[in-house]
Design a protein that fits this description.
255 residues, mainly alpha, 12 helices, globular, transmembrane, membrane, transmembrane helix
Length: 255
C-alpha cells in the first residue's frame, strides 16, 4: 500500500467535513444574535460565505473541490480500466468524473471568472448574472414570458430549477440507489455502481433535512449547501478509494 493510499485509508474525511459544516452553521446562527455583534464575523459571513460573489471564499472553495473530485474520479477510472478494462464500473467513474468537471466549468463560468473573456459574447445577454454558464440562463427572457408572471420567478434564472434538480439527482445516486441496491442487483449496471459508505449516506440525509429546516424556517443558507455538495463529491470519491484499497489489502492477505 503506497503512502498516499495509506493516508486516504486512515483519513476520516467524513468527520472532517461534518466538523467544518457544523462550524459554518454555528457561525451563521451566532451572527443572527445582536449580543454577538462581531463585525469581522458578520463581514466574513456575508462577503465570503452567503454571497454569489465569485471571488468569495465559498465560491473558490467549491471550484477547488470540484477540481479535486474530478481528479479523484479520473484516478479511479484509470485504475479500474487498468484492472478490469472498460466495463460498467468504469462507466460510473467516467460519469462522476465528467459530472465533476462540468460542475467545475459551471462554477468558474467556463474560465470567464479567470480570464474575463465574455465582454462581447451573446450568452451574457441572456444570463441572469451576466456570466458564461448554463445554470444561470434567463429562460424567461428566451421564451419571451411576461415579466413578474407566474413562471417568470422560476425561469428568469434556470438555476432556480437546475440547482434543486442537481441535488435530487445526486441524492438518487448517492443515497437512494445504494440503499435499495441489494433488491435490484439483477440490473448489471446498478450492481456495478460504486457506492459511498453508510456513514456518508446518513450524513447526507441528516444534513439535507437540517439544511431545509434552517433555509426555510430561519435564514437563507443556500450557499452553504452548494459548497457542501462539492465537498460531498470528494467524500464519495474518497469512500470508494478507501473501500477499494481495503478490498485489495484483504485480497493480498488471502492470496
Amino acid at each position: 500500500m503506497t503512502p498516499t493510499v495509506r493516508f486516504i485509508v486512515n483519513l476520516d474525511h467524513i468527520k472532517i467535513i461534518i466538523a467544518f459544516i457544523v462550524l459554518i452553521y454555528v457561525a451563521c446562527v451566532l451572527d443572527q444574535y445582536e449580543w454577538v455583534s462581531n463585525q469581522y464575523l458578520n463581514t466574513f459571513i456575508h462577503t465570503e460565505m452567503l454571497t454569489n460573489d465569485e471571488s468569495s471564499f465559498f465560491e473558490i472553495l467549491s471550484a477547488v473541490a470540484w477540481v479535486i473530485a474530478t481528479y479523484l474520479f479520473f484516478n479511479l477510472l484509470r485504475k479500474q480500466v487498468k484492472l478490469e478494462g472498460l466495463g460498467k464500473k468504469a462507466y460510473w467513474f467516467a460519469f462522476y468524473m465528467l459530472l465533476s468537471f462540468f460542475a467545475f466549468g459551471e462554477e468558474i463560468s467556463w474560465g470567464d471568472h479567470l480570464f474575463d473573456y465574455s465582454h462581447d459574447l451573446e450568452i451574457i445577454k441572456i444570463n441572469a448574472q451576466k456570466e458564461t454558464n448554463l445554470h444561470n440562463i434567463n429562460l424567461s427572457n428566451l421564451l419571451s414570458l411576461e415579466k413578474d408572471g407566474v413562471m417568470d420567478a422560476y425561469l428568469k434564472n434556470l438555476g432556480n430549477l437546475l440547482t434543486p434538480l442537481f441535488y435530487l439527482v445526486l441524492a438518487f445516486f448517492w443515497v437512494f440507489l445504494p440503499a435499495i441496491k441489494r433488491w435490484i442487483s439483477g440490473f448489471s449496471i446498478i450492481n456495478a455502481m460504486p457506492s459511498p459508505s453508510t456513514g456518508f449516506m446518513l450524513f447526507f440525509v441528516v444534513h439535507a433535512i437540517m439544511f431545509i429546516f434552517i433555509d426555510y424556517a430561519l435564514f437563507n443558507v443556500g450557499q452553504v449547501f452548494e459548497m457542501f455538495i462539492s465537498l460531498a463529491t470528494i467524500a464519495v470519491a474518497l469512500d470508494i478509494l478507501k473501500a477499494n484499497a481495503q478490498a485489495q489489502a484483504i485480497e493480498r492477505e488471502n492470496s
